[in-house]
Amino acid sequence: MHIVIVGAGEVGFSVARNLSQDGHDLVLVEENPDRAAKAENELDVMVVRGNGARPNVLEKAGITEETSVEMLIACSSKDEVNILACWIAKRRGVKRVISRAVGMEFTDTDSWSRELGIDTMVSPERSVAREVEDLLETQGAIHSIEIDSNAGLYAFRVDEESDANGMTLLDLRKQNPRLVTIIVYVKRDDTGFIPKANDALEAGDICYSFCYLDQIHEISELYQPHKAKKLRSVVIVGAGKVGFQTAELLLKRIRGIDIKIIDRDREKCRRVAAEMPKVTVLWGDGADEDLMKREGVPSAGGFVSATESDELNLILALQAKSLGACKSIAVIRRTNYMKLLDVIPIDAIVNRNEALSSVIISAVRYPGSAGTFALMDQIGAETVQVTIPADSPAAGVELKDLSMPTGALIGLVRREDRRRSDIFIPTGNSSLKPGDKAILFVTQDMTEKALAILGVNTA
Hints:
The radius of gyration is 23 Å and the shape is globular. By secondary structure, the chain is of the alpha/beta class. The protein has 14 helices and 21 strands. It folds into four domains: 2-122, NAD(P)-binding Rossmann-like Domain (Rossmann fold, 3-Layer(aba) Sandwich); 140-227, Regulator of K+ conductance, C-terminal domain (Alpha-Beta Plaits, 2-Layer Sandwich); 233-346, 3-Layer(aba) Sandwich (Rossmann fold), CATH 3.40.50.720; 382-454, 2-Layer Sandwich (Alpha-Beta Plaits).
């Protein structure tokens, strides 16, 4: 697909990197010379320097009266640039346009996007809130990415007390035949690998698993048995957009949940208290340990630090965990802080930019899906989306009989017919059909062989 991306900040760069790996023909528009140079040096994309809201700049990117561009993604940090770029592109014949919206009023209802002719409008705060809410509901997960209303990609750490500790994947399937899940990657200490059926899991392993949402609590209990309990109380430090949106989602999803929001800004507290009568809003300092104890952090099912400071959020999440909170989550902006999850004892770190880029990538890979999908940077395997051709030798063959090479497996399949589109997690008894879109997890040295087995032309 021929795609133009406006904005090469962290979000635009991440989207461009992922879509480039999918094989799309990309043009990246960026006004900042340093960001433009970084994209030219590190990505396999064409870079056009200039303001993405200017018609002449978009023309250089290929958006003309007779354009061949099929999609424009506007993800700069300025709403005006994003909206105008989408407006120009749509009127020049670009079929689909996606806009980032920093101002949340643009995504409060669908009316703005409809009236502006924008196909998809996404909010950073809402993207973060969805991921945080999902992590809180799935107590044993340290990462979660919802794909659609039926399935998601979750990362679970294997607990010492887990039945999975020391068990091979084959035995895990045999002992839990009703659970449909596939482990596509295992991170162990400083390394990672695509697992084989005879590989045994160890305590501390992080297992990236595709799961159906109606089985997620049972699967969570398998990996983290002491955390598989219903979420009843959450403390949120930070009454800004992320804290507000997280509380709103939790109230909608979990009946009777007790939520407290704490913030040092008295005016923010008054505003949130007026808008959310079912939430206890407290004016105070989240770093005050005595206050945290009084307000129930030691017995809380979840704790979320969502202030404007990355460093403070990490410290507060660490403090909450030391006080006894069941699940402690820090919201951050800087990507390099994600590595700290391996060295500090908190349960999850959510990156605002990664959460937003995952929504945008989902809209490209799975148009019409309500969920989000982006494979995390922690996964060290190649991830390739392929379409099964009509003459594929793999068509109609059960996956267990495909003889895929070691280090390659199919993690997810999307199948479309005239009436509907289905996403499913394949098992050994599943077979592929021509036209299926499959996500292939494969080590680099086995990519060519795996694609040949599927009949996918690599030329």
